Amino acid sequence: MFEVHEGQCGLCVHFGERHPQQPQLVNIRVRHAAPEDYIDTCNHPQHEALHLKVTPISGCDGFEPVPQAKQSAA
């Protein structure tokens, strides 16, 4: 398991943005931990056309935190 910190993709609103209520994604955001082999899409408007696949511990300058209300929806 990887620890996921503020500023990393796993806690960004654009990580898995098309399926934000997926149980594994919700668990990453609540527990701040992710399986080492977990990969999901980045739907940041500047990257969306690239169809990027990133890990929860990846990061970029376009980080936008997931609102707390969404995190506690588990």
Protein architecture, described:
Mean pLDDT is 89; it is low at 69-74. The chain has a two-stranded antiparallel ribbon with strand order 1-2. The chain has 74 residues and is an alpha+beta fold. It contains two helices and four strands, in the order E-H-E-E-E-H. 18% of the residues lie in helices and 11% in strands.
* Number of E-state strands: 4
Q: What is the arithmetic mean of pLDDT?
A: 89
| Major β-sheet profile | 2 strands, antiparallel
| Low-confidence segments | 69-74
Radius of gyration over all CA atoms, rounded: 11 Å
**Order of secondary-structure elements:** EHEEEH
Strand adjacency order, main sheet: 1-2
Helicity level: 10-25%
Taken from the alpha-carbon principal axes, the silhouette is globular
Describe this protein with a few key phrases.
single chain; 74 residues; alpha+beta; two-stranded antiparallel ribbon; 2 helices; disordered C terminus
List the helices and strands and how they pair.
Elements: E1 2-3, H1 23-31, E2 33-34, E3 40-41, E4 53-54, H2 68-71
Antiparallel strand pairs: 1-2, 3-4
